[in-house]
Amino acid sequence: MTSLTKRNIARVILGIAIATAFCWIGFRHTNWSATVTILRNADPLLLGCALAALSFDYLARVTRWWLMLRELSPGLPLVSTFGPFLASIALNNVLPLRAGDVIRTVGFTQRLGMPAMGILGTMVLERLLDLGSLLLYFFIALSLAAHVHAPATFVHGVMLASIAFVITSFGVALLPGPILSKLSPIVATGRGSKPLLFAVQLLEAVGVFRSPVLTVRIATLSVAIWLLEGTVFLFVGQALNVNIPPVGNFVALTMGTLSTLIPGTPGYVGTFDYFTAMALSFFGVEKSLATSYVIAIHAMLWAPLTTIGLALLIGMKKSQATANPG
Predict the structure, then answer these.
(1) Which of 81, 146, 166, 284 is most buried per CB count within 10 Å?
(2) Greatest CA span in the chain, whole angstroms?
(3) Taking the C-alpha atoms of 45, 49, 55 and 59 in order, what is their torsion angle to the nearest 10 degrees?
């Protein structure tokens, strides 16, 4: 067994242990009978509205990714990006070690018509944009919910993440241009090594931030994406009669999503649930109702995307097998 395999196994075991610990700490005193009753009485129309908001959310996510990819492959049609994007989300939901991200990076190069490092660069930008948008919503939500005080350790962690985000953003915006001006001529003459070629491809993808117009477009889409995801939380809360101000749903969104940075299991079981329920406790939501909210939200974010993503993955595999029968 190689050292890499051992490390991966250790990461999986650690993730399971962390998820189990958060589930036990957060939900060991839950009245499950009351929780099931609340879920059964959920308003189906409002849950349908939440599903519609989620659909627009992921349409915006795919469009944002396509806008970045199109800078590297101008002729790429939007429809070609749906399968790889949603398949990677589905695989992240069912496989450990962020396998979906790995497969999106290396498994769809032919379909997207670009190198793996170029795809990886756009995914780095995705994460950066998502983190920035979440941090924005987190501090706006806390400022609007003035009577709510999040745990100091969590807030301090978010502040550190904000500092890291600002530093990284400046680096992404300013560094690719000068570095590429030095490396690209070397690669163009064929004198560069393969790692140098990979570095240039990655920097070219990250360098899309050099375009002010594109930067404004994808930043605006990023803010809209998380507004739509917050709307999913809002509709689910209303479907379950969770009596909190609308901003409370955005506190839950940001705390739950930021907690997925903690190592855990596929689908973020445990970590996401614990911190989302904690956010509701700030507003005095009773434990069974908070648990119902967490279960409904997690199911809403997991089941449709996993089902559609896996179906698209199977469809792409069949299409590829038909095109290459040998």
Answers:
(1) 81
(2) 69
(3) 150
Predicted local distance difference test score (pLDDT) of residue 187: 62
CA dist list (Å): 112 to 73, 94, 100: 8, 24, 16
Q: Which residue matches tokens 């995801």?
A: 229
Question: Do 283 and 30 meet the contact criterion of CB atoms below 8 Å apart?
Answer: no
Burial class from Cβ neighbours inside 10 Å (0-12, 13-18, 19+) for residue 55 reads middle
Whole-angstrom distance, CA of residue 303 vs CA of residue 8: 26
Which CA distances in Å does 72 have to 4, 154, 175? 32, 38, 18
Question: What string of DSSP letters covers 130-161?
Answer: HHHHHHHHHHHHHHHSTT----HHHHHHHHHH
Phi, psi of 178 (to 5 degrees): -60, -40
Rounded mean pLDDT, 165-176: 76
Pairwise CA distance, residues 314 & 159, whole Å: 42
What pLDDT is recorded for position 1?
63
Structure token digits, residue 148: 């709510």
Does residue 15 surpass a pLDDT of 70? yes
* Residues with Cβ within 8 Å of residue 243, at least 6 apart in sequence: 285
